[in-house]
Specification:
The chain is 77% helix and 0% strand. It has one domain. α1 (7-27) runs antiparallel to α2 (42-91). The protein contains 2 helices and no strands. The longest helix has 50 residues, at 42-91. It is mainly alpha-helical.
């Protein structure tokens, strides 16, 4: 089954993917403005930072699944309408 994504959906997925990969690195480094190195163990920091992004990514996957289901339901509905129309022509 092929999932057709719009250009906007592809851009959002790429941005989220890049964020998931880079934000743990950025937040575990010391910069002049904000220092995240004293936030506890590295695992807790990375887990706390990436959990919201992973939840958002999961939400996007649920959205794509629902979108595909709606398209499949429309295709089935068209098939039933065609079948009903064909049966009506055969009866007469």
């Amino acid at each position: 089954m092929k999932i057709d994504l719009t250009k906007k959906e592809k851009i959002v997925l790429v941005v989220i993917g890049i964020s998931i990969m880079t934000l743990p690195f950025i937040f575990t480094r010391s910069f002049n403005l904000v220092d995240f190195t004293n936030t506890g163990s590295i695992g807790d920091t990375i887990g706390g930072i990436t959990a919201p992004f992973m939840s958002f990514f999961g939400s996007i996957l649920v959205y794509l699944a629902l979108k595909s289901q709606i398209e499949a339901n429309k295709a089935i509905e068209k098939q039933f309408e065609k079948q009903k129309k064909d049966e009506m022509t055969l009866c007469f």
